[in-house]
Amino acid sequence: xxxxxxxxxxxxxxxxxxxxxxxxxxxxxxxxxxxxxxxxxxxxxxxxxxxxxxxxxxxxxxxxxxxxxxxxxxxxxxxxxxxxxxxxxxxxxxxxxxxxxxxxxxxxxxxxxxxxxxxxxxxxxxxxxxxxxxxxxxxxxxxxxxxxxxxxxxxxxxxxxxxxxxxxxxxxxxxxxxxxxxxxxxxxxxxxxxxxxxxxxxxxxxxxxxxxxxxxxxxxxxxxxxxxxxxxxxxxxxxxxxxxxxxxxxxxxxxxxxxxxxxxxxxxxxxxxxxxxxxxxxxxxxxxxxxxxxxxxxxxxxxxxxxxxxxxxxxxxxxxxxxxxxxxxxxxxxxxxxxxxxxxxxxxxxxxxxxxxxxxxxxxxxxxxxxxxxxxxxxxxxxxxxxxxxxxxxxxxxxxxxxxxxxxxxxxxxxxxxxxxxxxxxxxxxxxxxxxxxxxxxxxxxxxxxxxxxxxxxxxxxxxxxxxxxxxxxxxxxxxxxxxxxxxxxxxxxxxxxxxxxxxxxxxxxxxxxxxxxxxxxxxxxxxxxxxxx
Length: 534
Known about the structure:
Elements: H1 3-19, H2 21-29, H3 34-43, H4 45-48, H5 50-71, H6 80-101, H7 114-135, H8 150-181, E1 187-192, H9 197-208, E2 214-216, H10 224-234, E3 241-245, H11 253-261, E4 265-268, H12 276-279, H13 282-289, H14 291-295, E5 301-305, H15 310-317, E6 322-326, E7 334-342, E8 345-352, E9 356-362, H16 367-382, H17 387-395, E10 405-407, E11 414-418, H18 424-435, E12 441-445, H19 455-469, E13 472-476, H20 481-490, E14 498-501, H21 504-514, E15 520-524
Parallel strand pairs: 1-3, 1-4, 2-3, 4-5, 5-6, 6-7, 11-15, 12-13, 12-15, 13-14
Antiparallel strand pairs: 7-8, 8-9, 10-11
Helix pairs in contact: 1-5, 1-6, 1-7, 5-6, 7-8, 8-10, 9-16, 9-17, 18-19, 19-20
């Protein structure tokens, strides 16, 4: 192949490599899962399909310019330097497309991990192969047209890289498992649930640290690779307890995590409508969450909260050693009485069966956090902590970042930051907390996602609940905002107090125009970049 022909092959590759940064970012945000990635392509057409279209247009123009200057025998363009200039122009054009179409202030920027670097290598290989194959066609311009399907080319690269990543992840997985099981005296605890698992993890870690050196998985590391990384980087022989958060988006995810952790204690915080876009039905959520209890050894111990519904039913069907926490006085193995909930925290009498009771206070907001504390206290009590140690640990609890985190500003308004995520039960709890604050109460929210076919229904109900708890609503988004606004109107909310904006930036402007120093502002959910509506 001539140098000029190679140039025609490389121009679209150079442009696409830079223009595709946003598409690669979406693939990373979706944890390299193809179903979520394709949903993102459908949801963000401007940011995912336009880069390839613009690359194609630019490459066709460059092709004809190159054809005039070089292929038709003109003097201009015969030097290697001139040909290199074409590649530089193509790369610069791709970079400009990326700058124009990508989120410049991404909430979670693209991270150039080892996996991303390997993906890029495979991506370049696939682009070169496609471009070379099309260059054999009599139609010389054909190599410039394949970027029209640039997102699909990336998906192909991801598919070809999958066996390599599976092999590498299995090596990390086995090494983490070996490290974890090398200490037979290490107490291994698994926590899962549709909501509350991160909070219970942090609460339990704080309580157990009153007696044991305890390692919990950091942040929201709740996937096999996240938990493996935590073990490989942080676990040392000095730890006596390991607490692993276990997340799931598909049936079998918890079973895979249990294959790694081999928990002897399992905590099921809740089961409800979460990630229905992947699970499809609540029944599949139930099956997946219960994989933790099924994975426990015969002498293991399962801990449940009495929700009067699914969790209680799973507790009843469990034949292994088990314990139940409840907000109902005298019910189960752990309960509470004399609850006081206020904008400054909660206080209650903690009762542990066979241990007695003690008055507890916490800075954590909301009755649902008492539920989380009961679950953690029940486990701590069974692991030998005294009531005084448990009560002291509860007093030391700090709000988790972005989870009903109270941020007061002396002389200004108060913020309740519940931006990490949102689900129907969590949103209900957050609104209950907001309602406990004096007027005026303002909510800023884009609504809830990952709820499958019922997403609009849940967001409409969310709007009705906002009408009962807030005085001003700032709703962010386009299509997803419509059912929330409908729910607000159904709930009798004043239309004058509904502010519909297109982005978080716009919501900040609106908020600053109307907020007063005595107001309380709830930020409920902050969607990641792959859920923004283009």
